[in-house]
């Protein structure tokens, strides 16, 4: 189970965009949620919703430890493995503040008490470079949360560009997905029932529909319907419920407890 989160673009700016041919190809080949909405603005509340079923805070500068039921708690209780692969994370186990182009508020698992207060669990906060190694070794954990850095998640300009167009941002994010996540699809471990979810955290701040605006969510994998589009109303709590249901762990986390698991995207 792999969740990849991109940044700050609504559905209409991504789906059908010539700047993102790889992601659009996946959306066409596999399953696309056409009525998927973020929960809030700005970013942090959406990331926390995806992993705890609660917004908790809307302060992107938040640095406190969060003690609420969350996916790590459920994973540990079920004996499942997990890692957060954050691009440009300064070091394994790092729970400090922003070090550009890494930002902590895009790395939600670094906030939870179940992680912060455990020397063993903090070791699962790793730089993204570890993802390729784990993938090649067939050692991806049961749950992988993937966080590209600000240059590669469509938030900021690509590295080395002081100014850019929105298409440049999307193109860089798409290239990163193709190069870094594309190899997952042919990986033997993933082919044995893996699931990849690619989602944007929020739409432009001008879109407040259902809290955070309409965003793309693409589901990919051997058990995902091909060429399918879902028009059901979904939000980040549904993604959390889908993840926990797929992994067979406790999904009664905040708003996810009463949410559907987006099962129509699966065969």
Task: Provide a quick synopsis of the model.
The chain is α/β, with parallel strands linked by helices and 267 residues long.
> Are there runs of 5+ residues with pLDDT below 50, and where?
none
In the CATH hierarchy, the third-tier topology is known as: Alkaline Phosphatase, subunit A
Number of domains: 1
Strand content: 5-15%
Can you summarize the main beta sheet?
8 strands, mixed
State the distance separating the first and last CA atoms.
16 Å
- Mean pLDDT comes to 98
Q: Which CATH architecture? A: 3-Layer(aba) Sandwich
Helicity range of the residues? 25-40%
Strand order of the largest sheet: 5-4-6-1-7-8-2-9
Based on secondary structure, the structural category is alpha/beta
What do you see in this structure?
With 267 residues, this protein is α/β, with parallel strands linked by helices. It has a single domain (2-265), classed as Alkaline Phosphatase, subunit A (3-Layer(aba) Sandwich). Helix content is 29%, strand content 14%. It has ten helices and ten strands. The strands form two sheets. Strands 5-4-6-1-7-8-2-9 form an eight-stranded mixed sheet. The longest helix is centred in the middle third of the chain and has 16 residues, at 166-181.
List keywords for this structure.
267 residues, alpha/beta, Alkaline Phosphatase, subunit A, 10 helices, 10 strands, globular
Blueprint of the fold:
Layout: E1 2-6, H1 11-14, H2 21-29, E2 31-33, E3 36-37, H3 43-52, H4 71-77, E4 82-86, H5 113-116, H6 119-122, E5 125-127, H7 129-136, E6 143-147, H8 166-181, H9 188-191, E7 196-200, E8 217-220, E9 228-230, E10 234-235, H10 236-247
Parallel strand pairs: 1-6, 1-7, 2-9, 3-10, 4-5, 4-6
Antiparallel strand pairs: 2-8, 7-8
């Amino acid at each position: 189970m792999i969740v990849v989160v991109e940044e700050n673009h609504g559905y209409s700016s991504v789906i059908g965009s010539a700047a993102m041919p790889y992601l659009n190809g996946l959306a066409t080949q596999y399953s696309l949620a056409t009525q998927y909405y973020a929960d809030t603005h700005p970013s942090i509340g959406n990331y926390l919703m995806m992993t705890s079923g609660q917004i908790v805070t809307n302060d992107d500068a938040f640095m406190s430890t969060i003690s609420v039921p969350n996916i790590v708690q459920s994973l540990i209780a079920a004996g499942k493995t997990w890692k957060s692969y954050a691009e440009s994370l300064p070091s394994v186990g790092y729970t400090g503040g922003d070090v550009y182009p890494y930002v902590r508020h895009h790395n939600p698992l670094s906030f939870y008490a179940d992680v912060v207060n455990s020397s063993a669990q903090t070791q699962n906060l790793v730089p993204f470079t570890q993802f390729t190694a784990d993938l090649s070794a067939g050692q991806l954990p049961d749950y992988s949360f993937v966080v590209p850095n600000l240059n590669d998640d469509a938030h900021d300009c690509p590295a080395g560009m002081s100014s850019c167009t929105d298409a440049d941002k999307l193109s860089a994010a798409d290239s990163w997905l193709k190069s870094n996540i594309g190899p997952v699809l042919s990986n033997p471990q993933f082919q044995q029932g893996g699931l990849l979810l690619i989602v944007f955290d929020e739409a432009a701040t001008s879109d407040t529909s259902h809290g955070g605006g309409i965003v793309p969510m693409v589901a990919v994998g051997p058990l995902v319907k091909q060429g399918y589009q879902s028009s059901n109303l979904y939000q980040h709590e549904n993604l959390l419920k889908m993840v926990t249901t797929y992994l067979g762990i406790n999904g009664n986390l905040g708003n996810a407890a009463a949410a559907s698991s987006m099962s129509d995207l699966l065969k």
